[in-house]
Inverse folding.
């Protein structure tokens, strides 16, 4: 564990085949834990060990240490699977927004968020072979979430809070607000007094966050980043993965520049091939011609989301030709 700001500690849980998770402890006499991390036995053992170190640290200084609540930033299994074990072991109240509560209440609700359609979500023509692949993909994801993340659902939060609300943590006001983009139910936590933002998965320091179908939405994501840019007195971002961000203005500006560049790359590619049209994979090959497979998989996700955004903005149109979805520019009069 590490104190990243006076009274705020981060516990970094190491993931198996997954990124490390940052769990934040806002220590004091009426504290809160932001995000619950993995639900595996190994991850939970590590969390409780580090949590006890924070408690000892406060006891040595004769400071009151009482954590009363825990909240998750969004409904992805690496951020909520530890909720039940952590709350029961530490005697905490679980507070969730209604959207997050509905997402994580059971297997049916959780998997509904990842149920996808080839044509609508991934811009592929539906075929029998793709149906078989999608079935195998769902089974693989189910095994991954349970085996790697220690997936554990929660159908009984102690309190449902509005996604636009103010909560008091250790006597200070913190604002909860919706921040969709990475996922539709995502929330952030901000203290204007301290200039501290808990950004969840929306803002990371060293890399772009994952944006892909069926959950992510680039238009929502861009609006969220603009909202974060307008937060008054913002000076520190505490992300769900990776290092602390102490240059929030520059980081958020870089994200916006990257989003605009991606939009320009896709639109220019389509305009330059307006005679024959381009499929998502054609665009991927133009932008990532010699990249590794994993990069191309992630790259296709954002290409698809960008195409859907451009389509919603009436800048491009789609046609199906020879079992391929092709995109063409729309002439602007």
């Amino acid at each position: 564990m590490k104190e990243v700001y006076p009274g705020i500690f981060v516990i970094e849980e190491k993931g198996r085949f997954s990124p490390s998770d940052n769990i934040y402890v806002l220590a004091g006499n009426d504290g809160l834990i932001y995000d619950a991390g993995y639900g595996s036995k190994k991850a939970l053992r590590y969390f409780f060990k580090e949590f006890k170190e924070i408690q000892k640290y406060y006891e040595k200084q004769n400071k009151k240490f009482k954590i009363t609540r825990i909240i998750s930033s969004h409904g992805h299994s690496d951020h909520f699977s530890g909720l039940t074990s952590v709350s029961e072991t530490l005697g905490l109240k679980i507070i969730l927004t209604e959207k997050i509560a509905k997402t994580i209440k059971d297997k049916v609700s959780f998997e509904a968020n990842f149920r996808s359609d080839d044509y609508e979500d991934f811009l592929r023509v539906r075929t029998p072979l793709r149906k078989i692949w999608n079935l195998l993909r769902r089974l693989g994801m189910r095994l991954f979430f349970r085996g790697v993340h220690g997936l554990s659902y929660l159908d009984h939060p102690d309190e449902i809070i509005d996604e636009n609300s103010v909560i008091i943590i250790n006597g200070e006001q913190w604002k909860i607000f919706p921040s969709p983009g990475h996922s539709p139910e995502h929330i952030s936590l901000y203290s204007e007094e301290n200039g501290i933002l808990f950004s969840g998965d929306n803002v990371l320091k060293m890399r772009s966050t994952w944006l892909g179908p069926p959950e992510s939405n680039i238009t929502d994501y861009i609006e969220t980043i603009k909202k974060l840019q307008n937060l008054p007195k913002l000076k520190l971002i505490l992300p769900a993965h990776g290092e602390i961000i102490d240059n929030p203005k520059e980081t958020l500006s870089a994200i916006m520049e990257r989003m605009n560049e991606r939009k320009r790359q896709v639109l220019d590619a389509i305009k330059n091939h307006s005679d024959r049209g381009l499929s998502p994979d054609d665009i991927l090959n133009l932008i990532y011609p010699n990249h590794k497979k994993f990069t191309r998989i992630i790259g296709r996700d954002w290409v698809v989301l960008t195409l859907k955004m451009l389509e919603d903005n009436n800048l491009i149109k789609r046609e199906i030709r020879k079992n391929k979805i092709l995109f063409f520019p729309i002439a602007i009069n």
